[in-house]
Amino acid sequence: MNPPVFQRNPGKTRRGSTLVETAVVFPVFFIFLFGFIEFGHCFMTIHSLNSAARRSARLGVGEDVTTEQVEDLAHSILNSAINADLENVNITVRDASIFDTAGVDPSNIDYDNLPSVEVADLESRSLFLVRIQVPYHEIGIMGPRWIETLNLHGQAVMRKE
Length: 161
What we know:
alpha+beta
């Protein structure tokens, strides 16, 4: 006579369950793991863009420095920091006098419509902005090529001496 079901050895009746549970859990685990890696890389890139903008804007603060020199420094910094096609990296130097207005909200500024400036022609105490944009699909490491419209950016605002 067979023993009742609750008395059977549980190891013999669950022989494939470990493999099935592993097959279900591993894809979810790896999606989270690769998501963390991708977001970490994204934030590292944003930090690199901000750093390149800040360093090149500091160069532009001095006398007899041109916008071309500021952009060249930003390109050389980014060349060693991120793996992006530098033709798709957009580096702009713009007039930032809007920040001298009291109560301005930086989140409401359309940075693309600010007027471009030549750093060498700026008067002393004038604000200028160095903004660097790179398309996300250019720097993604896990293959997010389907995100065509997202741009990462870094910027720095400095006052001409």
